[in-house]
Amino acid sequence: MQPGGSGNPFEGLDTHQREELNSLYRLGYPRGDEFMIAVPMGQIWLWTSIADMLQREDADYFENFWTKPGYVGHDNPEYVEKDLIDVTLKVAKVVKAIEILKSPEYAGPEYDRARPMAGMMAAKHGDFPLAIEVKGLDRGYRLGAGVKVVTGAAAGRQLYCMSYGHDVLFCDGHGDANLLRFTGVEVGDEVHINNRAFLAFCYSYRHHLSDDPSCDFLKLDGVPIYPQHDLPLQSPLMGVAYSGKYDGKLLWVHHTHDASLWPPQGLVYKRAVEQAQGPEGAAANFQLRWVENAEHVPPNFLPSAPNRATSTWLVDYKDYIEQSLVDLCDWVEKDIHPVPTNFEFADGKVFLPASAKERLGIQPVVSITANGGAKTNVRVGEPVSVEMAAEVPPGAGTIIGVEWDFDGQGKFPVRGEVDGSQTHLRLPATHVYDQPGTYFVTVRVTSNKERDINATARRITNLASARVVVSG
User: Fold this and answer.
1) How confident is the model at residue 236 (pLDDT cuts 50, 70, 90)?
2) Does any domain span residue 144?
3) Which terminal residue of the chain, N or C, has fewer Cβ atoms less than 10 Å from its own Cβ?
4) Contact of 145 with 198, CB cutoff 8 Å
């Protein structure tokens, strides 16, 4: 699903895996952001933060999943058998945040996904006990597994695995568990590792249908295919309806690659406003904008892929939010209506027009080719010709910056020449690779509504990449 790939996310999956991934997409998970499914700041973080609440409020579901017809755990245990973990083990080591950052023992790529979280924790308290090492966990799916301390000073604390490397489990939880993690845990204490609840959670979408159209594929003539349970009452993230009732103006900014708050959530609120305030009221008081290539958090909070820095496929959206706040003030104080982003939504996906004039909004539209295509194959030492194109939507200012990253490191060391006056441009570049491998050449384009090439704020970015496969 990355640039220059096959575009087929189902390659290599069995029938059941294909069906489940298809369901995930139809429910609105952002295509092109599959990397975030198992990343600590993605869906796994959502589970660790609400797992206790879900099991408390919907205990029947988590029991029925394993014991009653109509649920995968009962009807098709073979689908989850190889993933199941239910074992009590002793803590071999308590791992501190600073160790993940400094110790050679944890320098391998298997710890990359946990490193951003370790960095945040170490900034507050380097000795913070972020993880434990256990021995004997030789099977099953570790992410999402419950890790409950059963002996020692911290007995009773419930945590959940949000990342791991080898036998080291990085965990989080709700309330005090989130604040304490493995504080008070000692070597030799026992922990119960059990992922039955998480495996049930992976199928909970079938059994908790809302009235949202994205759930219609799980119904026939309005009747749910699977046994149903009430939606959780305390978490809007899990489908509780918005009222759409408010006084004043609302400019809703949503991200196309948000793995925590999927794009359809923006449409859920849009429909709620239209139902509560009517078409005219919604047009007068609500506006929706999309930030292309943005996640729930900025790229520097996310781990990178082995051969590609996160900042080469995701943008930092903070300046977009800042500009939208300025536009919201102008809307309220001067009655200057903010420009929306035009889009279509089908099969769980947001489609943005390819041209800035059609798309509108405030973000530049960017494209790139390598030797004329999305992918090129070259040999070591052979020049690669790349060309970028960018266009700023009408009224959104001019292009004030063009940066190139050729090796996937995310440093963007090469700058294109711009004078801050252009609303659209094309720039070529040439690069030679001296080592074989797969590279993603990326161009990052910045615009500013005030046309200020020296602007230090409200710098709106977007990017595009092409794949270069270099052989020896």
Assistant:
1) very low
2) yes
3) C
4) yes
